[in-house]
Design a protein that fits this description.
This protein is mostly helical and 175 residues long. It has eight helices and no strands. The protein has one domain (2-174). The chain has helices at 2-25, 32-42, 48-68, 72-90, 103-118, 125-128, 135-161, 165-174.
Length: 175
């Protein structure tokens, strides 16, 4: 079980670190703050550059915490929050990523939620530091993610729904 949790944590965490550095620094073919910010502006997360920096920092921080197995409920909450905001961008395209859907951010969010409930496993800094987490921390992580993501998503929805229909249809195809 410890090896399985280690594999899940490290792969998820490092993928998120990569996503974060795409937004923050333009690494791995990412748009950096300017390109990602322009995209975020177009989908209703404004100010786009600030939101790109916030999302990049969240992915980098949450991914690092999960990969290390350090403060696992907090890392999980950060990842869930940013991924729920990403799900909102892609919902108009349906579930499947092949259609621009929300499959991948949903998978990341649910995997982080699972880690919040199971803990990081035996091969983790939490374990080395003597930190242990019960299921209540999983509930707390989920609530923290919702408290941070829902207002952002609601504000985005309000912005997008007040745009002219022509612009909204463009958002759906670009998302």
């Amino acid at each position: 079980m410890a090896v399985g949790l280690l594999l899940i944590r490290v792969v998820l965490g490092l993928l998120l670190v990569g996503h974060g550095t795409q937004k923050l620094f333009g690494w791995f073919g990412g748009g950096g703050p300017a390109g990602t910010g322009a995209f975020f502006d177009s989908v209703g997360y404004r100010p786009g550059r600030g939101m790109a920096l916030l999302a990049g920092l969240a992915e980098l921080t949450g991914g690092t915490l999960l990969a290390l197995g350090l403060l696992t409920p907090l890392g999980s909450a950060i990842v869930m929050g940013v991924m729920l905001a990403a799900v909102a961008i892609h919902t108009a395209n349906g579930l499947w990523v092949s259609n621009g859907g929300y499959e991948t951010p949903l998978l990341y969010a649910i995997t982080a939620l699972g880690l919040a409930f199971t803990g990081p496993g035996g091969y983790s800094l939490d374990r080395l530091l003597g930190l242990s987490w019960s299921w209540e921390y999983g509930v707390g992580a989920a609530l923290l993610a919702l408290v941070t993501a829902v207002p952002l998503v609601a504000l985005r929805f309000r912005r997008v729904s007040t745009q002219p229909a022509k612009q909204r249809s463009g958002l759906r195809s670009a998302a």
